Amino acid sequence: MPAVQETIDRVRSIDLDQYKYGFETTIEMEKSEKGISEDVVRFISAKKNEPAWLLEWRLDAYRRWLTMQEPEWARVSYDKVNYNDIYYYAAPKRPAAMSLDEIDPEILKTYEKLGIPLREVEVLEGIAPERRVAVDAVFDSVSVATTFKKELSKAGVIFMPISEAVQEYPELVQKYLGSVVPATDNFFATLNSAVFSDGSFVYIPPGVRCPMELSTYFRINERDTGQFERTLIIADKGSYVSYLEGCTAPKRDDNQLHAAVVELVALDDAEIKYSTVQNWYPGDNDGKGGIYNFVTKRGDCRGARSKISWTQVETGSAITWKYPSCILRGDDSRGEFYSIAVSNGMQQVDSGTKMIHLGKNTTSRIISKGISAGRSQNTYRGLVSAHRKASNARNFTNCDSLLIGDQCGAHTVPYIESKNASAVFEHEATTSKISEDQKFYCQQRGLSEEEATALIVNGFVRDVLQQLPMEFAVEAQKLISISLEGSVG
Amino acid sequence: MADVTNLRSPAEAGLSKLFETARRSFASDTTIAREEAFRFFEATGLPSRRVEAFKYTDLRAAITDVAPPAEAPSLDAARAAVARAVGFDGIEAARLTFVNGHLVRELSDLAAIPDGVRVTPLNEALTNGDVVLAQLAPVPQARENPVYQLNTAFLADGAVISVAAGAKPARPIHLRFVGSGDAPFSTATRVLVQLGEGAEFSLLESHEGPDQLTCQPNDALDVVVGPQAVFRHTRLNKEGDATIALSTLSLKVDTEAQVETVNLVTGAVLSRHQIYVHVAGDDTNVVVNGAAMLRNGQLADSTLLADHAAVGGVGREQFKWIIDGDATGVFQGKIIVRQVAQKTDGKMKSDCLLLTDEGQMMNKPELEIFADDVACGHGATCGAPDPDLLFYLMARGLPRAIAESLLVQAFVGEAVESVTHEGARAALIGEIEAWLRARG
């Protein structure tokens, strides 16, 4: 089925030319020397005053990276990055701020323009929002502010830049860093391990339900820099945390690299909910400029009955290479992946997930909606695997895509590997099959088949959006409240 | 950054040596681009799991020793081998018998070919410069496949079947491939089938051989289906338990043509059946079905590429897998819908029943869509037989084994019931039942 007019209009309304966050902040920056070398790795480590083990870890990763090749299996083509022509560290020159008043006002203005509240007081005195969000704001290579730290620490929650956590909780960082995404994992993750500059560290103690949403806002500002943040979230036994991530960058004619690593660890009965609204600058309509978003995100359901849920709304980046995954190691653990990827202009998206069932009675669910417009290419790539001991593993996958216009492409590349007879895997890529009963119900009440389908699918997408905390849901809804009728697998 | 280059495996080196020797016997025929094909193969080597299309079927690891091309068998040996072959034997058909990859004229019905059909042994067609040979290798993507190119390089025998425009022969042609002997060997056959406008033709194809016979057949079937023509193809792979069977089916489908191809695999320790469908004309209808029933140690791979390059094509692909013991099933299906191929309606499904905990199933159904007004979908499922259904049957007094057999039969049956030729359909169902009886 072709896309209906309403859908076309809505996608047009999120056209690339309307990228709102493309401004640049002029501010004095301190940078490492251009290019990558052991000296640069040492420089970054020294800047962060890191212990010897971490420097050694970085150097091992760097040496390993030198022997690796950039992956080419993804369905994206781009001019390769010259890794010696970018800065791996760029930080505002003003000394680290102790309070918001000490932060460079230009940076504060930047986050204000982006709509990110860094001033706790404003949030509290505002029209009392139901939820409060603690924000870690990462500006190029450093975290410039983290809000609500005190209130969180009352609950025992640790939420701080990872560079600070290395100083304050070295044993926790050493125990978990690289335990989900090893330094040798893949080309971009290994590069990140060598040069990561900042990112967030979260630890939720046993039995604690984190009192507010946690969030990190990433902003690339400086020209010719890459952003290599590292996020590590540990939910100890019986705890719960919801974490949000947002990102933007200035409009530029050249491409910038973002190679992040996110590691999640959920112990017994813990739950982590990780939501992303990715809105990096996607380049202009001719494909000039934009962010290369090469990200490794993985969650480890290490404990029994643990749960990790990824929700992503992807609208930005020139190139996206991103597969948030779950290792379902603990018995009865659950993994979820909800994704809506909208591509327009010359964007290329190759994204999906991996659900690796290792423990008994593990369940996973994958819902992926891809919408491609303009001359973009949108690929879902996913793996579901059940290993020998994963008895009673259960997976349901549904990936639908929609094309708007005849210049774009939508592709699906699922891998479904079952090594256990009691594992039940279902994969489907047609809308009509999901809900024949519901459709019949709607049609009985006078809706046409198309209206019925649209209603059901939209209802479902809204369910996914409702999983996003309110602040993000509004932004995401604007971007993707697009009817999905006319889906092709 | 370091480049990783695979060292040439002994099998690859062996193949190069064999090609050097065989080159002399290829004489001067230039219709077949053997040199180019072998150069392609040398550049790629035997594909390993590092090659995406062979991720689950590592030929480099499986083929450790290269077997020499088979000699033409003596007539007595051929007769003895054919006497043991039972595939499609009850069906009235004109038979072309290949023993160890060589066409045995004495055991073929070359004199009793149905009206409207012309059969020429490949070697004869090459010598005479038959114009139909221009239709060889009709699908471009197949020419980028190392298995197919290896077949081209070593091509030893085969046939050219031309069905005249409008001809609708009542009897099918049966390509009967039989293996025999005690020493390892390899074969490379190519059969080209060309259907003229409005022709209607059925082809049966069976591959059989004794157990413990180490052989490496690499067979290719090129089919060019003319406008409004109907091509029906039923294939049975019942090779022996030490056979590594590689095969490629390339189909070029013209305007308003209809194709039905069904493949049942019960044999070979490792089999890979590659199907390339190139939809070149508008409003075609293509059905590609497959079923595999595998026991201990077997691996069967069905790899399908359906390339829709014309408007309004309907494609239905359905694959069924029964995995017993520690067998492995591999399904890789890809539907490409090009920008011009609006109104394409493609559906692909692969379902698997794992009967034991040791078996494994690898599914990779892909879609690559560039047209916006299409309805394409794929589905894949994998699991054990439904315990509720088993319970239902057992509650009615059936022993577990019979209840399971009934469920399996019904499950696999879906893939073969689309076979239009009644005799061929019955033969496949007979094979399914025999497999279940042997399982006990």
TrEMBL record, chain A:
SUPFAM superfamilies referenced in this protein's UniProt entry, alphabetically: Stabilizer of iron transporter SufD
Domain (SUF system FeS cluster assembly SufBD N-terminal) ranges: 148-209
SUF system FeS cluster assembly SufBD core domain ranges (all copies): 218-460
Domain of life: Bacteria
Family per similarity comment: Belongs to the iron-sulfur cluster assembly SufBD family.
Protein name, UniProt field: Fe-S cluster assembly protein SufB
Higher taxonomy: Bacteria, Pseudomonadati, Pseudomonadota, Alphaproteobacteria, Hyphomicrobiales
From TrEMBL, chain B:
Domain SUF system FeS cluster assembly SufBD core: 185-411
SUPFAM superfamilies: Stabilizer of iron transporter SufD
Taxonomic superkingdom: Bacteria
Listed name of the protein: SufD family Fe-S cluster assembly protein
Family: Belongs to the iron-sulfur cluster assembly SufBD family.
InterPro entries (alphabetical): Fe-S_cluster_assembly_SufBD, SUF_FeS_clus_asmbl_SufBD_core, SUF_FeS_clus_asmbl_SufBD_sf, SufBD_N
Pfam families listed in its UniProt record: SUFBD_core, SufBD_N
Originating species: Methylobacterium longum
Residue ranges constituting the SUF system FeS cluster assembly SufBD N-terminal domain according to the UniProt record: 32-174
